[in-house]
Amino acid sequence: MLLELLLLACSVSASPRLSEEEECLLEVETLKRSIRGLENKLLIGAWQLKNLRQHNFFHLSHRRPPQRHNETTLEPTSLPKISGNLIVYDHDCSMLYDRLKPPSGFYRIKPKSAEDPFLVYCDMSDGGGWTVIQQRRNGKVDFNRDWSDYRDGFGNFKRNNDEFWLGNEHIHALLQDGEHLLKIDLMDWKGEKNYAMYENFRIADEKDKYRLQYGLYSGRAGDALSGGSHMVEQWSVSHNSMQFSTRDEDHDRYLQGSCAEENKGGWWYNRCHAANLNGRFYRRGEYKARHDNGVVWMTWRGLWYSLRHTTMKVRPLVFMDSMGSGAGAEG
Ligand SMILES: [Ca+2]
């Protein structure tokens, strides 16, 4: 549009002399180049804004000097590469641990199958290398949320004791390559700790509603994900091969109602559960309610006790083989 006006202005004002026409064309060419330069600046700005929004913090490592008005174009190939503190080498926290052995904290990772890097909490204690996918600590974050929140992740990603759900899309990407161990750390209101581990933990993609799969259980808190040791309970509450449900997307096996609605969280509900780690946060442990909707691990403290701390964290099985059991009871 701008260019058309410029060309029009040229054709009206220019005399038929060739030199002036050439001059005008030259000016148009210069303006075209500066438009391309501005378009590229806009691209860089949008790219920086995207990073800022995704990761809360972002420092320009290579701030470009201000451009002169008639400076020639910046070709797209000169867009800044991911560099400086934006470099993301690690597919998960185990890779970061192997490389740098840093302390526990929030780091940016990029699993092979993920489109963009994202922020995770890395637990570098307990053998190190754990990527944390869920954390409950103080009840400050509401876990009774919709499908899109559980898909994309929610909560706070700043302090070590922040509560969050990493997001089913991120968890799916994280577990795509190789086999992973899931460790669940629990703590009750007296400060007693316990844990459960599952081999070959993975979840399907969104098309299959993030269906849960896991293999062998080990640990001391009991196999609540499979509903304990009774066959009848296992049939109705085992979470293995269940799809994910939220209050607005019911994929459970409870035909008369919605487990997610009753139990106040997103989870792989059957009809309904023996483990409800995304449930409602009750501040005193034992609770009374219409439904067993607390932060529950049935095989340890029962359905009517809501836990104080929970952590769900994953690590490649290979990592465990090279480091020993990793079976510490750290919460
Ligand atoms: Ca249902």
Instruction: Give the H and E element order.
Output: HHHEEEHEEHEEEEEHHEEHEH
Low-confidence stretches: 56-85, 325-331
Number of H/I helices? 9
Mean pLDDT, all residues = 84
Q: Which small-molecule species are bound to the chains here?
A: calcium ion
Give an overview of the whole structure.
The protein is an alpha+beta fold. The chain has helices spanning 2-13, 18-55, 93-100, 147-152, 168-174, 231-237, 259-263, 298-301, 317-323, and strands at 105-109, 118-123, 130-136, 154-155, 164-165, 180-187, 193-198, 202-203, 212-213, 217-219, 275-276, 296-297, 309-316. The longest helix is centred in the N-terminal third of the chain and has 38 residues, at 18-55. The chain starts with a helix and ends in an 8-residue tail after the last helix. Calcium ion is lined by residues 250, 252, 254-255, 257-258.
Ordered list of secondary-structure elements with their pairings:
Elements: H1 2-13, H2 18-55, H3 93-100, E1 105-109, E2 118-123, E3 130-136, H4 147-152, E4 154-155, E5 164-165, H5 168-174, E6 180-187, E7 193-198, E8 202-203, E9 212-213, E10 217-219, H6 231-237, H7 259-263, E11 275-276, E12 296-297, H8 298-301, E13 309-316, H9 317-323
InterPro entries: FIB_ANG-like (IPR037579), Fibrinogen-like_C (IPR036056), Fibrinogen_a/b/g_C_1 (IPR014716), Fibrinogen_a/b/g_C_dom (IPR002181), Fibrinogen_CS (IPR020837)
Subcellular location: Secreted
Keywords: Disulfide bond, Glycoprotein, Secreted
Task: Throw out a few tags for this protein.
331 residues; alpha+beta; nine-stranded antiparallel β-sheet; two-stranded antiparallel sheet; 9 helices; 13 strands; 17% strand; elongated; binds calcium ion; secreted
